[in-house]
Amino acid sequence: MNLGSPDSTRVEDVKKYLNEFLMDGRVIDYPYLFRLFLVRGIIVPRRAENSAEAYQTIWTDEGSPLVVLTKELMKAVQKEIEYPVTIAMRYGNPSPGAAFEELLKKDPGIEEVIVLPLYPHYAMSSYETAVEYAKKIHHDKKYSFRLNFIKAFYNDPGYINALAENMRPYLEQEYDHLLFSYHGVPERHIRKGDITGNHCLQVNNCCAVDSPAHEFCYRHQVITTTKLVMEKLQVPISKYSISFQSRLDKHWLKPFTDIRLKELPGEGIKKLLVISPAFVSDCLETLEEIAIRGKEIFIEAGGESYTMIPCLNTHPLWVKTIAGWMR
């Protein structure tokens, strides 16, 4: 189960997608009427045309890269296991309901469906909303099979190994710095997800201090992923850093990727590698925001070379890791 995409690059389809995405109360967690006014009265009318143009820069003959790559991942996993595999999207098509019906056509006697939300890290606006949406459809349609969800896999050895091996060839080239650019979330989401109520963003160096809150803390989990994969690849701490992209306002997790891309050349970093491990499939946020706009920002600021490391997509070790989880 992945994020989703508009059905086409037409402004009408992009508006429909943005409305569904941004009206999700776990994405913009404001009261419904205010969210309705904000999304349909301000954000979507202002962003739809620009978003459509952005999608046009990455769209393929087969359609949205995220959907195409998720289908390719499905086919690769299907070759590894004997059970039927299909895909669903949190927003847009195919919906979880369509996916459940497809699985039942393949095997009407299904007793359990394993759902893999394709988000390595837990956040209410990604992993949590995917899980709750699938649960709601399962409940509303009264399916007899049970659902079993794969947990956020930010520190899973198989995932870390696949991520490291996907990155390894790019680290063989000459580079000054490696930037881990994770998708941003509002700081209030981090506080809201703190099950202790007194740890996240309230304790000094909170992500390094053990706490039950870490099970649902996006910031702690992205820091952990970075640390584990860098240890595996034996990259010194001086050669990498973390930032957060796709911010909507100043109260999101910092530092901001676009700001860091402007600053790095002035710090003597001229050859940059960038990876976005919050995504396992390349999409608008990696192909357009990082690979195209990010490069423009860095080069205009005085950078010399800029390489985006692709997402895991259908890397063989990633496919085998997923198949192992299913078994």
Plain-language structure description:
By secondary structure, this protein is α/β, with parallel strands linked by helices. The protein has a domain at 157-308: Rossmann fold, CATH 3.40.50.1400. The chain has 11 helices and 8 strands. The strands form 3 sheets. A 4-stranded parallel β-sheet has the order 6-5-7-8, sandwiched between helices. Strands 1-2 form a two-stranded parallel ribbon. Strand 3, helix 5 and strand 4 form a beta-alpha-beta unit. Helix 3 crosses helix 11, helix 6 (157-171) crosses helix 8 and helix 6 packs antiparallel against helix 11 (316-326). It is globular, with a radius of gyration of 20 Å. It starts with a strand and ends with a helix. The mean pLDDT is 97.
Provide a compact summary of the structure.
By secondary structure, the chain is α/β, with parallel strands linked by helices.
- Could you tell me the strand content as a percent range? 5-15%
CATH architecture annotation of the domain at 157-308: 3-Layer(aba) Sandwich
> What is the SS-derived class?
alpha/beta
Distance between the termini: 18 Å
Topology as a string of helices (H) and strands (E): EHHHEHEHEHEHHEHEHEH
Q: What value does the average pLDDT take?
A: 97
